[in-house]
Amino acid sequence: MLGADDAVTGALLARGWPGRPLADQPLGIDLLNTRWITAGVAYDLFDHDDLTGAWLTDRELPTARPVPRQPLREARAAVAAVIADPADHAALNALLDHGRVRLAVDARGRVEHDDVADPRWRAAWACLRDFAALREATPDRLRKCANPECVLHFQDVSRTGRRLWCSMTACGNRLKARRHHDRARATP
Ligand SMILES: [Zn+2]
Description:
InterPro entries: ABATE, ABATE_dom_sf, Znf_CGNR. By secondary structure, the chain is an alpha+beta fold.
């Protein structure tokens, strides 16, 4: 279920880590939000087998032995690169080459299956496939938080399409306050 972070929440608690922000994004963007910064400390689910496994469970993705942290890291880097620069899709296309979409039909119509030979790439490829679909559907609305010190990403589903922040409280207000402070200091 979208936004259900039950296993991750439990695994984070077990480590004494803070909760994961912005866990409500679609899969292709949620891949990016597996790392975050809280109170100046960087956290990354893909640094640990238990946290990566919990994320795969929550997202209903296939796992493998060993836990496929490296393919997920590579996929995450490739997606972040495309969001930073939409023309920079070579790495993403190279990773998509790990799999194919296999077509079939059922009583209602077309059915698509992921066809990924290497079990370690199945979860990462599913994330990439989801991102490719998001990019097709809303190319201008996949963004990084405008706070340069924040690493979170989101799909802007607001009516105006002008969302800038992962969250107004976490980043928007903080940056506005700093700008106000800078302006106040600059005024003699
Ligand atoms: Zn942010």
